[in-house]
Amino acid sequence: MIGFFKRKKGDINSISIPNLGWEQKKNDDKIIQWTNPEGNIVLSINYFDSKPDLPSLKQINTVRHFYREQIVEHEGGLIEVNLSKCKDHKAIRTIFKIPLKTSGVIYLASLTIPFRYSSYVIKIQASETGVTGIRDSVVSNRLLNRGEITVGENGFIDWDYDPYHSTFNEGTLMNKSEEIKYDADFKNHPLSIARKLLSQIENGIVFKPEIEKLRKL
Q: Cα separation of 14 and 117, whole Å?
């Protein structure tokens, strides 16, 4: 009699993240979601019970190209794509920006933790609300005064760029004000909050024992 190998996949409750005290909006077998009191940050744990649609994690440039192609379809751009570790598990740390229809942008930050037959994605959606562009304005004026950027016919020169591809110019590129060194000056900016949350989650994530039985990617 031939037995069938059961592929272990885990479930939505096999991981947990630090409790921020935010209001829970959803809780089912695919997603647990919270919103901050101000209503501009959405945090979620997402569980996918199928094989991850990801390129090989051995080459970071391949991973960056994979995400770049996807985000440009939405007129967005890369802020960060790096390989990371959550405890002893491989993870992909990403931050994207996508322009909003009115003004400002939404930052999409995530930690993807892939296994052979399932994956977990912790997502942070952080939107600019109210008066937008203050961080851009303050930093651009600072850099203009230092001569680090200049004004050209179509706007600032040396201001927008893809952090991993010097000649790429499609979508809504990262700009210099979005570099991590400015987060301390703009602690309440959605990008600063998203970055801080990602690091908090990386350090505080908890994997239940059943996770160790899953086959790694």
A: 14
From residue 119, alpha-carbon distances to 52, 63, 134, 185, 192 in Å are 6, 16, 37, 35, 26
Torsion angles phi and psi, residue 73, rounded to 5: -60, -20
Residue 6 pLDDT greater than 70, yes or no? no
**Residue 97 to residue 179: CA distance in whole angstroms:** 13
Is residue 64 classed exposed, middle or buried when 0-12, 13-18 and 19+ CB atoms within 10 A define those classes?
A: buried
CA torsion sign for 29, 34, 39, 40 is negative
Q: Which of 5, 10, 12 is nearest to 214 (CA)?
A: 10
Q: What is the DSSP letter of 22?
A: P
Under a CB-based contact definition with an 8 Å cutoff, are residues 11 and 213 in contact?
no
C-alpha 123/C-alpha 189 separation (Å) is 17
Helix H segments across 13-90? 60-72
- The one-letter amino acid at 51: K
**Structural contact between residues 56 and 152, judged by C-beta atoms closer than 8 angstroms:** no
Distance of alpha carbon 129 from alpha carbon 189, whole angstroms: 10
> What distance in Å separates the CA atoms of residue 158 and residue 149, rounded to the nearest whole number?
5
Q: List the strands of the sheet with 105-114, edge to edge.
A: 23-27, 31-35, 41-48, 119-127, 105-114, 89-99, 77-86
Which pLDDT tens digit goes with each residue over 68-124?
999 999 999 999 999 998 988 999 999 999 999 888 899 999 999 999 999 999 999
